[in-house]
Amino acid sequence: MAVTIRLYISLVLLSGLGTSHFLINPLRNNRKRSLPDTVVDGIEIYSTKINCKVTSRFAHNVVTTRAVNRADTAKEVSFDVELPKTAFITNFTMTIDGVTYPGNVKEKEVAKKQYEKAVSQGKTAGLVKASGRKLEKFTVSVNVAAGSKVTFELTYEELLKRHKGKYEMYIKVQPKQLINHFEIVADIYEPQGIKELNADVSFITNDLMNVLTKSFSGKKGHVSFKPSFDQQRSCPTCSTSLLNGDFIITYDVNREQPGNVQIVNGYFVHFFAPQNLPIVPKNVVFVIDISGSMSGRKLAQTKDALLHILNDVKEDDFLNFILFSSDVTVWKENMVQATPENLKEARNFVENMQTAGLTNINDGLLKGIEMVNRAREMGILLDRSTSIIIMLTDGEANTGESRVDKIQENVKNAIGGKFPLYNLGFGHDVNYNFLEKMALENHGVARRIYEDSDANLQMQGFYDEVANPLLIDVDLQYPQNAISDVTQNNYQHFYDGSEIVVAGKVVDLESNSFVADVKGHGALNDLTFTEEVDMKEMEEALKEQEYIFGDYIERLWAYLTIEQLLEKRKNAEGEEKENLTAQALDLSLKYHFVTPLTSMVVTKPEDNEETQSIADKPGEVKADQISHVYATQLNYQPPSNPYYFVDGDPHFIIEVPEKDDALCFNIDAQPGVVLNLIQDPDTGITVNGEIIGEKKASSEPNKNKSYFGKLGIVALQMDLQVEVTPQRITLWSGGRKSSFTWMDTVTITQNGLSVTINRKKNMVVSIGDGVTFVIVLHQVWKKHPIHQDFLGLYTVDSHRMSTKTHGLLGQFFHPFDFEVFDVRPGSDPKKPDATMIVKNHKLTVTRGSQKDYRKDSGQGTKVFCWFVHDNGSGLIDGVHTDYIVPDLFYHSPIQS
């Protein structure tokens, strides 16, 4: 079945440095409430409305929030909305005292430069761009003058995909306070007619039942939720809100015909979902990682999931199990039919799985592929059956063939396009990009299985999506001379409960009819489905409906086209990748979508300054894992200032905004060596790091990696010392010692120091009005024979350090210049060499990339940079040994 696409809205409005609760000027007994009940830090937020319109699965959502500054001075208000990666922001505006300020979508590099210019001029600009997460945030803030009102309005759209026979809208309700006017309204229009409509609210009470209404008749459906101020209370006298949880709307449409074609303003969309077909038998190989890191709860949950899956396997299916760690183990030498006897034996095999060793992904997959191919050649499998491989792993390949590009090549050649590969990545230590790319180029998908109590249900849920194929080799055909620019129209499988969606342009607008043919192989015979529609009648019928919003089919077509171009781009190289990039960029700019190729900039108003004009078409942001660059005191997000950090083995990364580029270098030092990273004699702030090595040293040269295992922060003017290890955080301040572990989630504020520990992820250290450091924790499997936990250091607001700041990292906090030229092939074809002039040195540098783990400590984000060899020789002042200091808290005296 298709993946469920959900609409997430989590509204959090911030005032000042803390969270501003939604205490809104409601009325009780027709009298105005007193200010203490409605105003937080001077800000009164008096309305939040979520309006959803769905036309033929295409959802158009508007989130509107209104606030007023009741204080005597200007206050900052932030607007924060969470979105799924598949949502498209189509418009954003801020209206302050009747003047509207829009967000604009631009090519990524142009937007980045505009954003950096605004920040360099002291403006508080917000930036929205694509990143690597599933659920990300759109955030923007503005200073509101005393007595002024502000309205935030965010519009976004999404194609709802059918999952287990239903379309689903998921709204995360989390206002965190009482709101005078809070409402959710959804109107649905489906030309096929609505079959069922439901609304499920996790926080519903008896008092709220009468304010949740739902109804449907014919082609229209309606859901509304409008609790009064008092009905939102968690108790009769409480000032806290019980609105905290999930608001889920599900529906399905009538299916008198297997398909439905709609045509509006020269664009068509074809929905195809036949029913009541016999299930095609499947041949499934489970390739399961049983390396040491899968021990404990992961293995127990995997066993539980597989045992439940075996209960759902049908007798016509064939199956096998491949287990891989350092070696590969098979359950049976050939594919076997799912007879009761074989299933009983399979359950016993699963229950006795044990973990040990490393991770040999290559050999495990190749064995599974070879088993399916051999079974087909030997005639073991049914002629009318389909094969799939499902691979589960929680780590990266670290034995056997471990080069990911070579594994991808081996797997692609072995499968040969004959059947799909589905990859499940368990936890955050997997190379998910590798799993996704390998799945996509073999007609499958990748899915992350989150480490949680329901991991077994996540695995079962994925299997349920692919458990019931109804058609294979599905081909959707249209009149060749009548259409153009069609989205993907052939699929290896159609699964029960899902839906295939194809869209395109209609060229022959004079024709009276439009014919769609769908061909596929069923369980019993080959099938053809034909649908003919009258174009004139269709257009007129749709135009009359009040639920239609604009050229929704054109927008749906653009949505699908960009999505599929970007997906193809992941596996393309050279000229093909350039062409796909150009096509996706052109459409992204035309329809104002934020994709990995574009960004959205929101520049807030300043006194006596003209604002940007609103674009002719509403600005759209594809929320393909949107990342906001916004920071509050207690919830760190990536900063807008130039970044300087050291992480990994250890890799030093220096951003140079003036060049729109970055430089990087490594430092090779022995375990136990302490290096000075930052030292500012004016402010008295010093940061040192102690090197650690692997648990077990390698006998091979250049194979031993080193990391920072301890960090020491000194702030002399505040009588402060902080020691951070992968196990503990220890603070000495004013003669007092405090100690915490990474299991804590806590914020400590004392004597101008603020320390926030985000459990098992990172910690944020802010020193007075000066610099902020973010320390990222990297954890590995405790029983790993080689690696051990380590730390990464990231600086925020480095411009607040004095011009005398030095150290391996600190010397780059202030502007410097370099020039790169004569780019040429290097020893690695993927990494060109070049000549660099920097600090009067002429160096040979290599283009490469490192990982930035600020947003995701598991996967990281690639940062491309020019790599300076030999411990940064020629780039750093002196040589790297000049930065060795005697102990973790060594510092220079404060300068007078």
Automatic annotation (TrEMBL):
<dbReference type="Pfam" id="PF06668">
    <property type="entry name" value="ITI_HC_C"/>
</dbReference>
<comment type="function">
    <text>May act as a carrier of hyaluronan in serum or as a binding protein between hyaluronan and other matrix protein, including those on cell surfaces in tissues to regulate the localization, synthesis and degradation of hyaluronan which are essential to cells undergoing biological processes.</text>
</comment>
<protein>
    <recommendedName>
        <fullName>Inter-alpha-trypsin inhibitor heavy chain H3</fullName>
    </recommendedName>
</protein>
<keyword id="KW-0654">Proteoglycan</keyword>
<dbReference type="InterPro" id="IPR010600">
    <property type="entry name" value="ITI_HC_C"/>
</dbReference>
<dbReference type="GO" id="GO:0005576">
    <property type="term" value="C:extracellular region"/>
</dbReference>
<dbReference type="InterPro" id="IPR002035">
    <property type="entry name" value="VWF_A"/>
</dbReference>
<feature type="domain" description="VIT">
    <location>
        <begin position="29"/>
        <end position="158"/>
    </location>
</feature>
<dbReference type="GO" id="GO:0004867">
    <property type="term" value="F:serine-type endopeptidase inhibitor activity"/>
</dbReference>
<dbReference type="InterPro" id="IPR036465">
    <property type="entry name" value="vWFA_dom_sf"/>
</dbReference>
<dbReference type="Pfam" id="PF00092">
    <property type="entry name" value="VWA"/>
</dbReference>
<dbReference type="GO" id="GO:0030212">
    <property type="term" value="P:hyaluronan metabolic process"/>
</dbReference>
<keyword id="KW-0325">Glycoprotein</keyword>
<comment type="similarity">
    <text>Belongs to the ITIH family.</text>
</comment>
<feature type="signal peptide">
    <location>
        <begin position="1"/>
        <end position="22"/>
    </location>
</feature>
<dbReference type="InterPro" id="IPR013694">
    <property type="entry name" value="VIT"/>
</dbReference>
<keyword id="KW-0646">Protease inhibitor</keyword>
<keyword id="KW-0732">Signal</keyword>
<keyword id="KW-0722">Serine protease inhibitor</keyword>
<feature type="domain" description="VWFA">
    <location>
        <begin position="283"/>
        <end position="466"/>
    </location>
</feature>
<dbReference type="Pfam" id="PF08487">
    <property type="entry name" value="VIT"/>
</dbReference>
<keyword id="KW-0964">Secreted</keyword>
<dbReference type="InterPro" id="IPR050934">
    <property type="entry name" value="ITIH"/>
</dbReference>
